[in-house]
From TrEMBL:
Protein's name in the database: Adenylate kinase
Enzyme class: transferase
GO cellular component: cytoplasm
Subunit and interaction comment: Monomer.
Amino acid sequence: MNIILLGPPGAGKGTLANKIIEKKDAVQIATGDIFRYNISNKTELGVKAKSYMDRGDLVPDELTIDLVWDAFDKHKDESKEGKIILFDGFPRNLDQAKALDQGMEERDQKIDHVVYFDVAEEVLIERIAGRRVCTNCGATYHVKNNPPTKEGICDRCGEELIQRDDDKEETVKNRIDVYKEHTAVLIDYFKEKGILFSIDGTNSPDKVFEEFLNKLGE
Ligand code: AP5
């Protein structure tokens, strides 16, 4: 089963992905995490992506689309057998959405659901300011709303938690503007295909997960 998590920065896509992976047979393809991994390992892709990410702009499609297929193709057979593949942070504009449709068709697959996170802008800013992420496995926490059991340490793998470079206030503002300009159009794109459902992303992470399961019919 292939599911897109769609929503603005800080809406809770990564947090819901963590919960789904904990409780169900699922994997996540998170383009932001893939770029961050490449940046910290100073790969050619990481060097190219860094300046865009530091500004809060989208990394160009030619650096993004192929890496999604590389990741997806590792799981495409499991997806047919019912494993949940979560697209987190992709697609992020109309060209990426069309490339995803085309690639799915070539693989005789489809996107089953798009989960849209409805969250007000003030909430996004507060969440991003308090976000901490694991340097090793990418798990996400919030200093107040979703703290780890031991301060500064990841519950999942025991590594150190840090604040992301692009979580500075000016960059966050640009990321939200970029979302409005390029990504929000995908809400109607997927609504017209009849595969989008909204969830109230202002609820607690447990409630968001519960609503996700309900909407999925489970
Ligand atoms: P990416 O890493 O994808 O970031 P994003 O989409 O901006 O989303 P975030 O990770 O900020 O938020 P989230 O919705 O996952 O929220 P989270 O669960 O962490 O992209 C980063 C950059 O990479 C982009 O700017 C771009 O440059 C590049 N990029 C990535 N994909 C690309 C693509 N396809 N094309 C081109 N460029 C691309 O939650 C946020 C905080 O809130 C956390 O602290 C969390 O604990 C807390 N929280 C979450 N849910 C709740 C809740 N229900 N209640 C209370 N607190 C909550």
